């Protein structure tokens, strides 16, 4: 009888990235440890809170929900899939063998999913002495998020030599089928969890009028509608020169993203050339790297030629945006009644207009030149990391 090994031969937990991918031993171990540890600690705290302070919900307020039943079914299906996978990998497939990480993943699946069902039932049938809830608790939402993230991390192994994405054997095809079922189940659990069909809302707006105050509402409420309202102010419909400036600014922005990708690549090439034999001075790579750094700028990328040129060209667009917003504001003010103007102070109105215009400009600049480029950089880095 062979001794139980935690990882397969030639696979080590100390080596994270090998052969263009991450081993199944490492992925299953880390995901199992994080998910089970989180649910064990915070789920137990939540259960203790319900046991000590929870009150049973009125049966009249608990309605039937097919989505809730479907959610429970999916949570019960996942440990069954874990058992099927364990049996196939440990006893059925060619070269099958049981490893320690497989036992750990199975134990976590048999513990975590039923435990989450217990929490789900508690949230459905019991209430805590707080403001009436309109969704699931933070523990379950984060747990389902971690489950979905764990399934998406597998895509890092698209080019992994030992991954089942190649579908070259029957084992790979079965593994891929189980993955599709798991991925679909966790996706539905995550989406249904956001809708919270099993939670009966007892929220009464008339009892909590203070919550209806706009000052207490989230800044991101109706964010998409707000963006659709603001975006027309960015595109100068009547000025072709300004339209060309907008397009050219976005071209410069995309060029900066490409340069951010190639700067570390050429840095690597220059460093690697120092260890080559015979030693040669790669002045061509150095010149390319210096040119890229000149275009990119300093450590934060804010002093480069591309960013400064884009900022200079964007001044006219920002002036156009400010002018259009203020004209629209004045048009709206002129359409208001005399009674409204008599009840307002002119200085206060002008101050609100100035602050509002500046806030809109700052918001658009943050979205276009800070948030969006950062998201693009992350996506490009992930794709390059996977394909490299």
From TrEMBL:
What is this entry's stated membrane topology? Multi-pass membrane protein
Compartment(s) of residence: Cell membrane; Early endosome membrane; Endoplasmic reticulum membrane; Endosome membrane
Which SUPFAM superfamilies does the entry mention? ABC transporter transmembrane region
List the record's Gene Ontology CC terms alphabetically.
early endosome membrane; endoplasmic reticulum membrane; mitochondrial membrane; plasma membrane; vacuolar membrane
Q: Which Pfam families match?
A: ABC_membrane, MTABC_N
| Transmembrane annotation, as ranges | 30-50, 70-88, 100-121, 137-156, 176-194, 246-266, 363-387
Record-annotated ABC transmembrane type-1 domain positions: 247-388
Task: Please indicate which superkingdom the organism of origin belongs to.
Answer: Eukaryota
Q: Which UniProt keywords apply?
A: ATP-binding, Cell membrane, Endoplasmic reticulum, Endosome, Membrane, Nucleotide-binding, Translocase, Transmembrane, Transmembrane helix, Transport
Q: What one GO molecular function would you report for this record?
A: heme binding
Q: Major place of localization?
A: membrane
Cross-referenced InterPro entries: ABC1_TM_dom, ABC1_TM_sf, ABCB6_N, Type_1_exporter
Tell me what this protein is called: ATP-binding cassette sub-family B member 6, mitochondrial
Species the sequence originates in: Culex pipiens (House mosquito)
Q: What is the lineage of its organism?
A: Eukaryota, Metazoa, Ecdysozoa, Arthropoda, Hexapoda
